Recover the amino acids of this structure.
């Protein structure tokens, strides 16, 4: 184990070696003093424990005589006192000598952030900012590590659709697992199917409404969703059951593709409801 996991902290190195370090690894603050025999002995036992934990935590011992401001900041009234810091927050403390099992229990109570969760959050941010290729790659990376991850699977399918990869999106949406994203995944399937049909030229092409439907799908394939929705709404105003409700399902899919904070999302849903009902 690296000696970096056992340090003497003071008022000069506290910000970097304790607070910043705690963003990724828990730091156990140990307040002690030379004149306190129990705290000296406790310091030694904590160092031995830290060595055995092999990098799980950092032990930062603070001599209250050398760092009185830190002792005051953390309201130290009895030695020894330990406080656990994680992501710059105090998440637990123990006052007085404690058995090793209590220290381990305190350390184990802190769960570090799941790297997969962080990757999905980053991928969602990329998706929202229009970086569809990077979002696709990151979602794909998550799914390689964890095949059953509904949020990543749904985000992956959306990233593919945004890039016009409708066939791949359909495959990604196949056998979607039961989850809170299941309904949203089912909602966008008609759009993926319609874009595949547009590519294969299997969309009806006989009436003016057929022509308008094709035009709306072409807008959707270019991510011009507002124009696509406006065109589809005009179709439904003339025939609410156009293609046996297919246009209705495609509109719902496109609305689902809009970002959640898009102010038009609610407006379009209301307009659609007023036409259909």
């Amino acid at each position: 184990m690296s000696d970096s996991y056992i340090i003497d902290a003071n008022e000069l190195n506290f910000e970097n070696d304790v607070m910043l370090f705690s963003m990724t690894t828990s730091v156990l603050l140990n307040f002690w003093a030379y004149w306190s025999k129990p705290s000296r002995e406790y310091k030694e036992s904590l160092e031995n424990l830290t060595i055995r934990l092999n990098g799980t935590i950092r032990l930062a011992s603070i001599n209250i005589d050398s760092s009185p401001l830190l002792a005051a900041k953390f309201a130290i009234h009895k030695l020894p006192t330990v406080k656990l810091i994680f992501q710059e927050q105090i998440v637990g403390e123990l006052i007085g000598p404690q058995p090793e099992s209590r220290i381990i229990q305190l350390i184990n109570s802190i769960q570090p952030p799941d790297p997969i969760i962080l990757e999905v959050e980053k991928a969602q941010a990329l998706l929202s900012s229009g970086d569809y290729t990077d979002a696709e790659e990151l979602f794909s990376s998550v799914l390689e590590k964890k095949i059953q991850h509904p949020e990543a699977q749904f985000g992956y399918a959306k990233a593919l659709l945004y890039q016009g990869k409708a066939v791949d999106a359909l495959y990604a949406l196949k056998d979607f697992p039961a989850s809170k994203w299941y309904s949203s995944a089912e909602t966008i399937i008609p759009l993926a199917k319609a874009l595949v049909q547009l590519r294969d030229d299997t969309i009806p092409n006989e009436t003016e409404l057929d022509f308008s439907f094709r035009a709306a799908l072409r807008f959707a394939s270019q991510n011009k969703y507002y124009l696509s929705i406006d065109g589809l709404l005009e179709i439904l105003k003339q025939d609410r059951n156009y293609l046996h409700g297919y246009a209705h399902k495609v509109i719902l899919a496109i609305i689902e593709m809009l970002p959640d904070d898009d102010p038009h999302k609610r407006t379009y849903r209301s307009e659609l409801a007023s036409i259909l009902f």
In short: Residues 62 and 129 are 45 Å apart (CA to CA).
